Every structure is written in structure tokens, then in C-alpha cells.
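Dear colleague,

As promised, here are the two records you asked about, laid out in our usual form so they can be pasted straight into your sheet.

NAME FIELD: protein one
SEQUENCE, THEN STRUCTURE:
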Amino acid sequence: MRLLDARSLPPLVQERLRLQAVAAVLSGRAIVEVAASFGITRQAVHNWLKAHHLGGPDALAARRRGRPRTAENSSAAAAG
């Protein structure tokens, strides 16, 4: 079976995937089983469980990625 590259999914879909996988493990399913059924690695499930344990569901929320937008990083500052 081919694993899912979740990076190609929209951020909200990624968040939903994380929440569903964690909920499945918390309901009693084995991590290996959850990983196989969602098409993700068991390491990802472990990482999400750890984040959920430390920060709750908010730790799995979709966030902006990449370099923060600042005046120094804007294309207008580079052009001027």
C-alpha cells in the first residue's frame, strides 16, 4: 500500500486527518492499525499523539507554514 503524502492536502484536511487518527487511537485502536487504515506512517501517529497529549486538540490545528511575513521579507522591500 502506498502512503499518503498529506503535505499535498489543504491545511484543514490535514487537521481533520490528524484529529481523526488521534481519536481512533484514543478509542482503543492500535497505532499500527490506525496508520495502515489512514495510509500514514506510525511515526506520524506517534507525533500527533504526543502533540495532543501536551497541548490538546489545539496542538493539531492547521497553522500557517513558512517564513513569517515581515517588512524585511516582503518583495516590496527587496525591490526598493
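NAME FIELD: protein two
SEQUENCE, THEN STRUCTURE:
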Amino acid sequence: ELAPTFRVHRATVARWIQNARERLVHETREGLRERLAVGEATVDSILRQLEGDIEISVSRLLAE
């Protein structure tokens, strides 16, 4: 749905979304590590616990 708005191919929008997702995960991991002063294993555990909830929330936002 975004491709025509930006006048690009849908594959381009898919790449944009994938890059945004990767950046979000990276920055979230770094932010958690710094704020909570914990190691990678703890961040991994926290994100695994939240993963399902995050996917559902993002899906709801995109559906609106």
C-alpha cells in the first residue's frame, strides 16, 4: 500500500521495512543493555519474553 505513495516498487518498501525492523531491534537491544546495565543473555531473555506481544502490537498498529 505504501509503494504507490512513494512511487517506488513494493520490493523497495519491503526493504525499507526490513531495515527499519533491524534498526529497531538493534537500538532496542543497546538501549536495554545500557539502561538496565545487564548483559547480552539478559537482554535476549527479556526480548524473548516480549517478542509475541511486540509482534501483536505492531500488527495492530499497521492494521489501523
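A couple of things worth noting about protein two: The mean pLDDT is 87. The first helix runs from residue 2 to 6.

Best,
R.
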